[in-house]
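Model: Ready when you are.
Researcher: Fold this.
Model:
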Amino acid sequence: MRDLPVPVVQFLCSTVIQDRSLVYLQISKQGQLLAADGDLSHYGLENLVLGQTLGGQLFFLEGLVPLAETVLHIPFLQIQNNVAIELYIFEDHSVDWVILLDSSSDRNQQTLVQQKVNDLSLLRHRQAKELAAQIQKLETAQTNVTQNPQITPKDLLANLPIGEHRDSTILTLRFFQLTEPALAPILTHPLKRLDRYLTFVTPLILDAGGIIYQHIGCSITALFGILPSSQSASRQAFNASLRIMAACQTYQEPSGPPHPLKISQLLTSGTINLDLIQLGYRKRLAVMGLPMTLALQINPALNQEGLMVDQPSFEQLEQMHSFFEPIEALDGPQQSWPPLYAYSAS
């Protein structure tokens, strides 16, 4: 496919590279500049002299030409204070061709993403330290029971470190885009999409003081009320849910127009038991209790978008009662479920 039809070339030039300030250079194997054209002034290259060696004319190409490989691609190369280029070098008929495209906007976007990743890493590190301190208290209590047989289970319950039994709210979130049969034919790379969805939602949970407990399939389970906070666990989880719903309305794939993410969210509240279980060489935080049981039972039956809460969560959100309505029916063994309520902003 060496000879592209003229309409194809024109289309590519008018769409893909129109706003990227294309420049091409032709350089001999002896390092002489044979040809140069394109938006040269955008990169401050309007005074190039043909027939001369690169020298100080194209400092950023020193050491890159003559080309020692088939094709060289550098996605981000800083050549001026505010200009970064995407650089291609390839060989054809004993000369080297150089293509420059402006990649400043992509570089800026990558910088913002990296900054968000750094912020998220710091937040996770802080939460990990807080959890490690609570886990250390739990391990100390377990060691005391083992070494002192005079301590009874009742004594242990009376002196458990904070975090063993907690009034918590569990947020269960499910992505519909990856489970709807009608969308299956048009979804490509579903695992990559799931990874993008998780990356999009996780910071919103962490920023609200939640902890990602697990994600299975297309669902995320997060815990609220584990880390110290001035807010109740139910209020933390509710605020996180509202932020997630608002953010999902403006979700945008890396390439393509914005399109809302279809999600369901469920809040279940109550007392949970935290403990450590040994998995191989590592210890893992285990959670048991009615809120977790209900979350696991109800999540597969959630067949509608939006936010739903159980009875304890509804009671704790007393100032928000006017925004909730009882849910009449869901698929599943509802006789064992508490009443559920659906949130409506209207």
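Researcher: Now this one.
Model:
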Amino acid sequence: MNYKQQNLVAALRGYNLAIAFGLPGEEELGLAYANRAALFLQIKEPSEALQDIELARANAFPQNLMSKLEERANKCKDMIDRLQIHRTGEEGEEPSSDQVLKEYSNNTYFTLKRRSGSIIGAEDYVGLVNSPDRGRRVIANQDIPAAGVKKLTKHHNKFPH
């Protein structure tokens, strides 16, 4: 819904969360990668879009939608060719990647809206920080007591290379 309403930062957050918690090899993960590729294409980041298209193919993207994914990949390649000749981004056009990514990298962007039901108290112990020298990462805000740790038995995320 956020993507259709042109709320690209919220859409990017949603796609990233879907990817982070998606199960590898599942259709939903393939769809999340494909949708994020569309967003990257819109903000003129065709290289990132192509990476997500490859990840969508690798994660059970539905065959009946494959032609749409191929069309998107061709648009990415065309845009890469055009951008190598002349970098666009004039005012009044679609949002630039700088606008979206600047808002996206805001340190408070990934605050939890609801408390975790599966990992009690997780939001009290961890946070997301962003620094120029080390990038964006998850850190422990305080010591985590041994009794406060809940083991996750299944790997629920996959990060692109």
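Researcher: Key takeaway?
Model: Helices lie at 8-21, 27-42, 46-58, 66-85, 97-104, 122-125.
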